[in-house]
Amino acid sequence: MNVKLFVIVVTYKGKQWYDRCFASLRESTLPVQTIVVDNASSDGSVEYIKENYPEIHLIESDENLGFGRANNLGMRYALDHGCDFVFLLNQDAWVETDTFGKLLDIHGNHSEYGILSPIHLNAEKTGIEKGLLNYLDDKKVTDKRLLEDLYFHRLKDIYDTTYVNAAAWLLPRNTLETIGGFDPIFSHYGEDDNYLQRVRFHGLKIGICPSCVAVHDTERRIAAAEKKVQTSSSWLLAKVADVNSSDKVNALCLYHFRKAMSKLLAFKFSQAKTHWGIMRFLRKNANGIKHSRDVNVKKGMNWL
User: Fold this and answer.
1) Which of these, 167, 72, 175, 64, lies nearest to 115 by C-alpha position?
2) Cα–Cα dist 174/213, whole Å
3) Could you tell me the pLDDT band of residue 221, with boundaries at 50, 70 and 90?
4) How many angstroms separate the CA atoms of 303 and 232, rounded?
5) Full-model pTM
6) Can you say how many angstroms the Cα of residue 41 is from the centroid of all Cα atoms in its chain?
7) How far apart are CA 153 and CA 49, in angstroms?
8) Is the separation of the CB atoms in 201 and 297 below 8 Å?
9) pLDDT tens, 75-93?
């Protein structure tokens, strides 16, 4: 298969996973070109990659750009060097030898899909990664026929979904040229939600391919990060920046102001504080949200 596939891995203090991640790319039956964007790691990541994986094109950032902006650097490099596809892979994830070949075969028969994802297994490969399992079991998110077809041993190549996290995404070049990169309004968390919203807005589909496998070591990552809670502000931002939604920031501000006042009058001070905080957050970010929506409704290589 004569295609140019670039795999983009954003690294940050992740040496415990590098050998499994990068070795899996070396062992792929479909040759790939690997781009690593390092987010100013201080644990010797850059030196380790240079010494042990010299084939990798390494982009060293002087600051921690976060997941989205760092991936944008890799996407831009891939586009400039003639990619047909890019594959976004988390540093705590790895693939099977045939993962890429299978995904590209499936895309060849389903070019209407802007994103394809393999099934994500846990690190021991004893089950589906818990985060993905929740979405596979949610009929509002993933085609309900998936579980039914699994039970009756009649799995199809691909099933529609509206959400799958960006730990292992295959993006054809057309997706990058139509959607662009991750919106930099998201500093941490929420950027993949926003990207999926834009993919759907511009008429492309999102699919999960049950015959293809990636491994995602989320449990160890969560433990290593002391189970850091994803901030509610990121998900609120993803909601109001959704180009598929008609929600207006001013209207939402007014709603939460009224809720704050009603809770205050009812002496429910904790709830009043929550609504007041949401209103202040929305007012503070109103201009950025408007700019985000104005850009993202347009087709093109936005943010790259």
Assistant:
1) 175
2) 23
3) low
4) 24
5) 0.92
6) 21
7) 42
8) yes
9) 999 999 999 999 999 999 9
DSSP for 110-144 reads: -TTEEEEEEEEEPTTSSSB-HHHHHHHT-TTTB-T
Q: Are 34 and 50 in contact (CB under 8 A)?
A: no
Q: What stretches of 12-107 adopt beta strand conformation (E)?
A: 33-38, 57-60, 85-89, 93-95
Cα(219)–Cα(93) distance, rounded to whole angstroms?
12
Q: What's the CA gap between 40 and 208, in Å, rounded?
A: 32
> Rg of the chain's alpha carbons, rounded to an integer?
20
Bridge partners for 160 per DSSP: 207
Buried b / exposed e along 174-212 (16+ C-beta atoms within 10 A): ebbebbbbbbebbbebbbbbbbbbbbbbbebbbbbbbbb
Give residue 261's pLDDT: 92
Domain boundaries, the chain: 5-224, 232-296
To the nearest 10 degrees (0 to 180), the angle between helices 66-80 and 191-201 is 50
CATH number at 5-224: 3.90.550.10
**Angle at CA of residue 87, ends 181 and 26, nearest 5°:** 145
First-residue to last-residue Cα distance in the chain: 28
H-helix or E-strand containing 290? helix 286-296
